[in-house]
């Protein structure tokens, strides 16, 4: 668990105490080579058991018992405008996102935590996924031939007039060794609608599920919170590690689905899917902790997973077809389509859905270390 304590120095910089107190030698985010744990999928049962304990500990925020403990203290001087300064700010919110001034603090916190987890666990593996330049930031108040910066400062239409409610969309996407696309989207509409959308698509030669999560709010009330590992197996089963982690964390945080599933969702979501309308702040807090827990577990497992061998052509085809199936059924969500069409028109809405949000798997960007 990291603690960030900022204090201003005379030179204008601030110091962050990145203490990790009573941390285990496993490090939680990396396998412990000194203990001889390879952590690779398909390892011997005892090694697999140790990895599951380590992954669950990382997800739940508690160190596994029975392992040596050490105190690690690292103090760094963070200069304004530096990479560390930006990362520290994004750990506490939306950092440099344009929509940060509009989004509810809960959306800001969740967005910042997701992006920080990616950067912390993936590090130099990460690269920028090539989204269409004109769709990274979209604003219904701006003309398509205007620069995005101009759109951002355009006056909003008055309530009840043409163009109201104004809709803004902002996207960031990355790739890594094991993930072909890590997509994070923020949506703000001036009638109070806010959406945070996150999907982690593994590369087509990695036998890993697709992690998706969404948080939807209206007038500062969260109406939907959903998190799921969507399988990439034809029988729609999850790898045992994932099913076990999801079940354990759901029990730990006391989460149960209380919303019905749309037909398109029932075609792709797993039996461990959590879909709720939070009934209290405590339930929402539990969902946020659960979602960040499974996200960190997913990253840890992905870092320890080897690609599927090229000789296993049937498995590779299965993974690709199931990712295509996932995108196909996500595009059946008519609510999302109507929101986009009312703001941007049919043509732009379809292009946005199929090129930014749920683009079918094709030629993926490569990590610089591949």
Automatic annotation (TrEMBL):
<comment type="similarity">
    <text>Belongs to the HY2 family.</text>
</comment>
<feature type="region of interest" description="Disordered">
    <location>
        <begin position="29"/>
        <end position="49"/>
    </location>
</feature>
<dbReference type="GO" id="GO:0010024">
    <property type="term" value="P:phytochromobilin biosynthetic process"/>
</dbReference>
<dbReference type="Pfam" id="PF05996">
    <property type="entry name" value="Fe_bilin_red"/>
</dbReference>
<keyword id="KW-0560">Oxidoreductase</keyword>
<dbReference type="InterPro" id="IPR009249">
    <property type="entry name" value="Ferredoxin-dep_bilin_Rdtase"/>
</dbReference>
<dbReference type="GO" id="GO:0016636">
    <property type="term" value="F:oxidoreductase activity, acting on the CH-CH group of donors, iron-sulfur protein as acceptor"/>
</dbReference>
<dbReference type="GO" id="GO:0050897">
    <property type="term" value="F:cobalt ion binding"/>
</dbReference>
<protein>
    <recommendedName>
        <fullName>Phycocyanobilin:ferredoxin oxidoreductase</fullName>
    </recommendedName>
</protein>
